[in-house]
Amino acid sequence: MREAAFIRRNTEKWRSYEENPTTDPDELTDRYIELTDDLSYARTFYPDSNITKYLNSVAGRMHRGLMQNKREDQNRFVLFWTRELPMLFRQSHRLLLVSAVFFGLACAVGWLSAANDNTFVRLILGDGYVNMTLENIKKGDPLGVYGREDGATMFLAITANNIGVSLRTFVAGVMASFGTIVILFYNGVMLGAFQYFFYERGLLLESVLKIWIHGTLEISAIVIAGCAGLTVGNSILFPGTYSRLESFKRGAKQGLKIAIGLIPIFVVAGFLESYVTRLTLPPVVSAAIIAVSAGFIGWYFVWYPIKLNSGSEQ
Questions:
Q1: How does residue 311 score in pLDDT terms, banded at 50, 70 and 90?
Q2: How far from the centroid of its chain's Cα atoms is residue 262's Cα?
Q3: Distance between CA 51 and CA 254 in Å, rounded?
């Protein structure tokens, strides 16, 4: 972007910061984040320009204001979860929808493939898992796999694995989104085939009430990780007015924040899978856990970002 265009695009914002100072710590932090992003861009493309010196001066004054505020340290952590991350999700809702639709189609492919090829489930899930589950079905405990290990061991292994899947899905976006799409497709096909396996044996409802106790958070988080990866891929494919490198840096930063934001979700999902899924719960209790999990995902990742964004525009 030419320097004149960069200045023209942001002059009004910078002037409002100068003419309308604030002592509100949340607003001050938001302004500082935006201003330092602009300063970073100016340092990269106009290192010797007066506009870079000006932005550096304004950012310095804002930083001193933040340092003087006693709430700054704790507030920055709260701000990330209550404002910064939800606002990022609002910007990424279109890609979140793309990720969800693609994952859903992959699930349908897995279901239909398993329905039309009786070897497909073994191909996707492996002979060992299928044979073990068939044996558990004979014993009257089709989902006994969740009670094989002690809770602590399962929790650590599952949580680490899920976080790893999330980060791989995000990092795979550097392949112009192709790597992310492949991971989403594989996981979607696996889920579809997995659910058909239980449907074929008349155990679909039982499996849903058991598996989705943790799966609601776990699968939702994988879809959201797909959104993070597509954010990176889109920044490479569609740089807009930025250079491709600058666009990639911005997309990678945004995608990484989304991926990091999923860590608590995977921790809770790992806890549920390790300590709750193994229990024999009344159907109404299982359904309640699933509903609460789905409600939280819909609220935090969809409704709240929209509400927060609409409030900031008023």
A1: low
A2: 5
A3: 25
**Secondary structure tally for the chain: helices H, strands E:** 15, 0
Two structure tokens written together for 63: 């930083």
Residues 6+ apart with CB under 8 A from 198: 142, 204, 206, 207
Residues in Cβ contact with 23 at an 8 Å cutoff, skipping those fewer than 6 apart = 65, 69
Inter-residue contact 193 to 120 (CB < 8 Å):
yes
Q: Is the dihedral of CA 176, 179, 185, 187 positive or negative?
A: negative
Across 50-69, b (16+ Cβ under 10 Å) vs e yields ebbeebeebbeebeebbeee
- The tokens for 298 are 């819909």
Q: Do the beta carbons of residue 76 and residue 29 sit within 8 Å?
A: yes
Q: Is 158's pLDDT higher than 70?
A: yes
- C-alpha to C-alpha distance for 292 and 271, rounded to whole angstroms: 15
| pLDDT tier for residue 285 given thresholds of 50, 70 and 90 | very high
Written as one letter, the residue type at 5 is: A
| Total-model pTM | 0.74
Q: What pLDDT score was predicted for residue 69?
A: 57
Nearest CA among 18, 60, 23, 9 for reference residue 39: 60
Q: Which residue type sits at 150?
A: D
- Portion of the chain with pLDDT greater than 90, in percent: 48
Contact 114, 195 (CB under 8 A): no
Q: Where are the domains of the chain?
A: 3-69, 87-313
C-alpha of 210 from chain center: 24
Distance CA 153, CA 274 (A): 8
The residue type at 295: G
